[in-house]
Amino acid sequence: MRIYDIIKKKRDGEELTTEEINYFVKNYTEGKIPDYQISALLMAIYFNKMNKRETIDLTRAMVNSGDIVDLSGIKGIKVDKHSTGGVGDTVTLILGPMIAACDVPFVKMSGRGLGHTGGTLDKLESINGFRVELTNEEFLRYTNNIKISICSQTANITPADKKLYSLRDVTATVENLSLIASSIMSKKLAIGSDAIILDVKVGNGAFMKNIDDAIHLAKEMVAIGTGYGRETIAIVSNMDEPLGKAIGNSLEIKEAIKTLKGNGPEDLFQLTLQLGTKLLLLVKKVEKEEEAKKLLEEIIDSGAAYNKFKELVKWQGGDVNQIENPELLPKAKYIIEVKSEKEGYIKSLNAEEIGKCALKLGAGRETMDSTIDLSAGIILNKKVDDRVMVGETLAQIHTNDISKGKDVEEDLKGLFEIGEKNKKSKKLIYGLVTKDRVEIY
Question: What is the CATH number of domain 333-419?
């Protein structure tokens, strides 16, 4: 078998066999095929696409390129959640404790933030002492004891994906749905959870900018998960504006705590509630949607979800005092209030540009080597469809650099579009994708 022949075959629009896919993934990971030949193959895949079987085979080959996390030592049906990335997306920190408090094991290996999107691990590291690096034995033991663990991926999970993604990034071949779906799902499937819920973001702050592409990606990922023998569903949700009100690491931890106590932003809570409801149905914890929703609401009202978050922090070495008193979390030196110069309604609020403002403050990373400021970020006092008067506070900028804060103040003023009320109410969730159907809401 030669890589030359595989490139030529895909260039001519033919279907690659399972053996050919395994061959190029294995040999490229081992350094036996040069970048320039895989670049040519990726471009051929970009233009001629992969069918469902090829995409599942590519995912499987990437999963098998490294370590597979065996979760058989954890009692019960294990669940996992993945978001395709957005701004102010604190869902994992709320959903995980809610599900664990329902006695369903929630296992999550998360990543760090890059660019305008935040990372769960960075947020958790706002808590003094919180350990995101766990041994496999700790990961299993903690989950068995408290039904939840959130940690970083081991270095050798899907090394093929790491190499292929780096090459896609510099050869303009990122935006292919089979390559995107297999990249995301290989990392999920290398962790042996039984059920996976996907939150596919769509809008100006998301990777997918339009509904059709988001639905297509959701279908691809659900097909991969199902084809791999895992219960998998996807919700498609709105990322035209940030989720919740907080953007920035310690600020988002504070918002997660508020939401777990029942007084967080409505959109953040409702999305988390929907994802949790679908997860409980997926693992057959309950039979009806109303039962699942009621159970999750009771978990919040009783304080069980909040207490579960405190357990998570305690078991992973974090300072529980900071959870009980969030004012002890990292705080910025300066808070700058952005005032409205107009009266009317917030018509739009560009999530990507607001994420870039938070990045400018130091709340995110330009590169993986960047140092982040855990206290920096933005609180949105007004969101789309909210009424605003002249002089009211639109947002608060939290910064340790006053000059950067002033720059961001000017940027934010231009991002709040104020005018007449929108004729259509904004949607939080656009649809649901399962192995059997697509529901558009």
Answer: 3.90.1170.30
